[in-house]
Prior knowledge:
By secondary structure, this protein is of the alpha+beta class. It contains 14 helices and 26 strands. About 40% of the residues are buried.
Amino acid sequence: MAKVICPREKDYSQWYNDLVYQSGLADQSAVRGCMVIKPHGYALWENMQGTLDKMFKDTGHVNAYFPLFVPKSLFEAEEKNAEGFAKECAVVTHYRLKNDPAAKGKLMVDPDARLEEELVVRPTSEAIIWNTYRDWIQSYRDLPILINQWANVVRWEMRTRPFLRTAEFLWQEGHTAHATAQEAIEEALKMHEVYTRFAEDFMAMPVIKGAKTANERFAGAEETYTIEAMMQDGKALQAGTSHYLGQNFAKAFEVKFLTDQNREEYVYATSWGVSTRLIGALVMSHSDDDGLVLPPKLAPVQVIIVPIPKPSAEINDAAEKIMKELREQGIRVRYDLDEKNRPGFKFAEHELKGVPIRIGIGARDLEQSVVEIARRDTKEKTSVPVDQAASYSIGLLNMIQQNLFDRAVERRTQKTNFVDNWEEFEQIMNENQGFVYAHWDGSGETEDLIKEKTKATIRCIPMDNDLIENGRCILTGKPSSRRVLFAKAY
């Protein structure tokens, strides 16, 4: 039975859900708010993870792993962090089940097995990590600590959507400790730049770099740096954050060190992370009504070879030679040997899964020593000499990667406005959506009121110096020294 995807223009939310499930990225789960990440989706995550992991290690970081469970007393130690995540916490209270005497074959929580201290299932790991760092840090010689963790976390979201917001998700979280504020700030900005390069160079997803307002900062942070991407419907998606935590967690957990001047001081901290919501960002940034469109640098399969109408000795030989050349250049290529389905079905399936390049090899084509190469992003097809198929495909992969980025930049430009009055701002948010650069008076009260009236939030205070100019707040008319970025968001 053919898979039917709701048209993007008809219902964007349904289009997204159809793509996630029908393309094999994820499946629904028996656990409310959770999902099963299927092999195609997990392969995509592995490519993201592998790329980011190398980028982290190239900047001096190492991986470690910390417990899933956080004693409630530790979680409460940094008050702002605890308050910020309290409503999303899952809590373990008992450690054993037993047979229910009132219902044969059923189990009940053993009332005699209550934990002495309740355990929070980590929504983030600052508390358990900084409690550990207290034992690791005594002297300036122990600093800096540059650690990253690949893990799962649980945030008990009430309204969920696959990849974008789920009760459990996969992520990485960096946690670093430094001797000075300047060093910690530089670390937070360095990782902010790493996320920017990953989003733009690998995801082909342009982002706006900036700092969050005080209202939108990570709970417990002195400063939160963010990258904000525009999805095809004009909404923003926060794609990664890096936090300068100051000495807040060091003071909460009494993490001190002796300086080279033999003075005792609190440590300075950062944390930073991205998650599997980046898969959702990829889907919404590039895909169309026929399926996923994946950037070649991250696609699980970059080139698929399809025999037409079915494998033969001659076709197999040509396919093997092309695959050998591509694999020698590090290209992820696969030969579709499925004989149960016709070529047309296979074409649609690989298109649905977002394979960037399809090479069709048919007996008639081989008589002319050519193959047909189709690119996923534009659907264009080209006949290429069989002995040039590999080199042509490698060049085409680079072209597709760049084209996806350029298309996303153009779309963002078309949906970005500079606004100086409330009426125009409200109209854009109600009708067109997109990014709006406008003046804001700097107060949290005004920020909340704008959100209440339009559902638009300040996505960031951009780092672009061109936006520094005198103006007046679009809502209150009070003086403002720069424009900030507004949008509705996921």
